[in-house]
Amino acid sequence: QSALTQPPSASGSPGQSVTISCTGTRSDVGGYNYVSWYQQYPGKAPKLIIYEVSERPSGVPDRFSGSKSGNTASLTVSGLQAEDEADYYCCSYGGSNNWVFGGGTKVTVL
Amino acid sequence: QVQLQESGPGLVKPSETLSLTCTVSGDSISTFYWSWIRQPVGKGLEWIGRIHTSGTTNYNPSLKSRVTMSLDTSKNQFSLQLSSVTAADTAVYYCARVPNWDYFDYWGQGTLVTVSS
Q1: CB of B95 within 8 A of CB of B4?
Q2: Are the beta carbons of B102 and A1 separated by less than 8 Å?
Q3: Sign (positive or negative) of CA dihedral B43, B49, B52, B58
Q4: Which of B77, B61, B88 is closest to B8 using CA atoms?
Q5: Residue among A88, A73, A69, A84 at smallest CA distance from A17
Q6: CB-side exposure of B44: number of CA atoms within 13 Å?
Q7: By 3-state DSSP, what share of chain B in percent is helix, strand and coil, each rounded to 5?
Q8: Which of A50, A100, B44, B106 could connect to B2 by a Cys-Cys bridge, CB 3.0–4.6 Å?
Q9: Nearest by CB: B105 against A34, A57, A102
């Protein structure tokens, strides 16, 4: 199963919004509402920020939001802050008890 | 506070078996699923597989022939074995909790395993 497709990079100025796409197929992203997003700082473990397409774990700022349309899921970071500069990964259930990650997107706060 | 900690050799020779253990504190492994995920340095994440408290396992099809996961409930640990390793298996290996079947909410800090002679 191929990795989900994410743009390698995205950027925005403080206070702006940035949206990251995660494109799969109807066998993964399009077929299930089991998309999650993770934030990773260099040298650190990933941190869950969105699960089941649009749910936010306790403690995650509401600046982070998720959505899905067809075979593409999206993560939007509103009101960008310097601390949001990190790598972001999407993950989807791929059927047959298999999970697939995206290649990751590096977000730069200008 | 749930914490996970990976442990195991940092260097494995080609063709040998990589063995890692994840020790869980703040929760019992007799609940939920538990997973292994790896990340080659400078690259993306790859799901390796998961194990349920019942012992049921699911593995990434691309690794299935080489992967074995197990539980030790007496030590609150779960383990990963990856056989016949090559340089392509060099990565940071993470263990993670899977609380609701479909996402990973608590992660270990990761451990770098290098495959080299």
Answers
A1: yes
A2: no
A3: positive
A4: B77
A5: A84
A6: 21
A7: 5, 50, 45
A8: B106
A9: A57
A contact set with B (CB within 8 A):
1, 3, 34, 36, 38, 44-48, 51-52, 57, 89, 91, 93, 96-104
Q: Which residues on chain B are in Cβ contact (under 8 Å) with A100?
A: 47
CB-based contacts of B32: which residues, under 8 Å, 6+ apart?
Answer: B52, B53, B97, B98, B99, B100
Report whether pLDDT(B45) > 70. Answer: yes
Contact at CB, B47 and A100, closer than 8 angstroms: yes
pLDDT digits (tens, 9 = 90+) for A48-104: 999 999 999 999 999 999 999 999 999 999 999 999 999 999 999 998 999 999 999
Say yes or no: B105 contacts chain A, CB-CB below 8 A: yes
Q: Which of the four pLDDT bands, split at 50, 70 and 90, describes residue A1?
A: low
- What does the CA dihedral A7, A47, B110, B43 come to, rounded to 10 degrees? 0
CB contact under 8 A, A97 and B58: yes
How many angstroms separate the CA atoms of B41 and A66, rounded? 27
Chain B residues in contact with A3 (beta carbon < 8 A)? 44
Gap between the Cα atoms of B45 and B37, Å rounded: 7
Whether the CB-CB separation of B14 and B115 falls below 8 Å is answered with yes
